[in-house]
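ARCHIVE RECORD
Type: protein–small molecule complex
Small molecule: zinc ion
Source of inputs: curated submission
Record status: active
Notes field left blank by submitter.
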Amino acid sequence: MNDFPSDETLRQVLRRAWTSFAAGNHGIGAVVVDSDMTVVGSGRNQIFDTRGGSLTLSGSPLAHAEINALYSLGGVRAPGCTLVTSLAPCPLCVGAAAVFRISDIRYLGHDPSCDGAAAGTASGSWRLPRITHEADSSWSLWCEVLPMVSSVQRHGRDSILLRSYELSRPDLLEAVHRFADMCPLDSKGVRGISFEEARAAFWSTFSDTPATLPRV
Ligand SMILES: [Zn+2]
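STRUCTURE (tokenized, with ligand):
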């Protein structure tokens, strides 16, 4: 992308930033472009707008331009795409871009409160929260496995989440598949098994079953 951003990309980002500003929001716009520099998603800051709209977030502190550009993709991740935004992205938007497998973020204006997030560090007025793993909780294994089971149900054995565990926790995989068989998923969700039954079955799939099942 030697000539990046293209005139058309720039025009769309700036136009959305203006629309945001004109509507009384922070004047920030963003687009998602694919490897051919075709705009595949767009959004603007709408934090002060009235709530509503099916493909935008509005009336919420979460309604950032970059979030709306990603949200406009309609639930489709965008590997290899680039997020172009008019102002340095905050930690929320950097994280959201990672969820959408965005490979690059380009921003036009500096924002002293967010440049740190853009650089992958905590600086300015944004402070990334301290994150602590509650390793001693008996429920941490349950909390770790439950999304893995859900991932198996929806994506089969080739899910990205599961693959990420293949090297680090191969001991979990067999139990995950057995547990997935116990909790069939249909269009209305997981049915036919109560929480109490599920947790009892869950612990029975592990050899290190606690003497007393953790209570909640
Ligand atoms: Zn943001």
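CURATOR ANNOTATION: Residues 64, 66, 89-90, 92-93 surround zinc ion (CB under 6 Å).
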